[in-house]
Amino acid sequence: MDIPLSEYLNTALQVAVKAGEVVKDAFYKEKDQKTKESYADIVTETDQAVEKLIISLLQEKYPTHRFIGEESTAEGKKVEWTDAPTWIIDPIDGTANFVHSIPQTCVCIGLSINKQIVVGVVHLPITGQTYSASKGSGAYCNDQKITVSKVKELKKSVVITEAGNSRDPQILATKMSNVHRVVEASHGVRMIGSAAVNLCMVASGSGEAYYEYGIHIWDFAAAGIIFTEAGGLLLDPAGGEVDFLSRRVMGACNQEIADQLSPLLNHIEFERD
To answer: What is the pLDDT of residues 46-72, one digit of tens each?
Structure first.
């Protein structure tokens, strides 16, 4: 029997709120942290516990579904993304924010069917914002419909990006040169610390564009459907169709902003997920 997307969305919302309670409880306590690929790429016990909780709750309801999770994906292992219903999970997007008690941190739960993201929930337990969308039904924040900005000139825009976790000198140099050019061409650049929060902010009209290199599918799958349902364009930074496994993304409030932003960027190639 086909399950309506509304049921999947309601389930994701319920699970995200439960997971958020764990994140919120840990937010105000001392955090144990370990490093992954670099000293700037960190994970906490809460990340791991929250992911296990999310998977167990979803698996109980949908035992045949598959999962892609940040913490359960072994280091260096390729993501196995198939046509089967697959939950794509980031238990804490913005882990550095979480560790440093910065409230822009969130639980991300997305669902793909036939490799198309059809449901997304981004829950910020500290600020109390919950963004959600299902394909064809619009995007919402706390039950209020959201839409992207109508600004069409980059010089009148704010662009959100991130420095990322890599500390490779060449990658950092390229990212900083991109920031320099974007600052010159716009009202300014912001770094919030979470790919999902960044996309949801632009989806709500807070800023006109977002781009990032070096992220993973779990960072922006859930937020991606929220962004497109809010009227945004989710693209490759070079301007073509987004590839969720390419580790790079650009979101723009309209084609005009995308066409002005993309030529400013020197693109960075990462190994695919």
So the answer is: 989 999 999 999 999 999 999 999 887
Q: Which amino acid is at 2?
A: D
Euclidean distance between CA atoms 113 and 119, whole angstroms: 9
Does pTM top 0.85 for this prediction? yes
- Grouping H, G, I as helix, E, B as strand and the rest as coil, residue 262 is helix
Name the 3-class secondary structure at 43. strand
* Whole-number pLDDT of residue 79: 85
- d(Cα 162, Cα 170) in Å, to the nearest integer? 16
Region of residue 73 (left: phi > 0; alpha: psi -120 to 50; beta: else)? beta
Place of tokens 């497109």: 228
Sheet-wide strand order for 188-190: 188-190, 158-160, 209-213, 248-252, 233-235
- Give the list of residues 6+ apart from residue 36 with CB closer than 8 angstroms, or none: 42, 43, 75, 165
Q: Which of the residues are catalytic?
A: 70, 90, 92-93, 95, 219
- Quick one: tokens of 172? 């950092």
Q: How far apart are CA 262 and CA 183, in angstroms?
A: 14
- The span from the CA of 47 to the CA of 51, in Å, is 6
Torsion of CA 46, 85, 269, 153, to 10 degrees: -90
Q: What residues have CB less than 8 Å from 115, skipping those under 6 apart? A: 81, 82, 83
- For the stretch 96-117, pLDDT in tens is 999 999 999 999 999 999 999 9
What distance in Å separates the CA atoms of residue 35 and residue 272, rounded to the nearest whole number?
A: 21
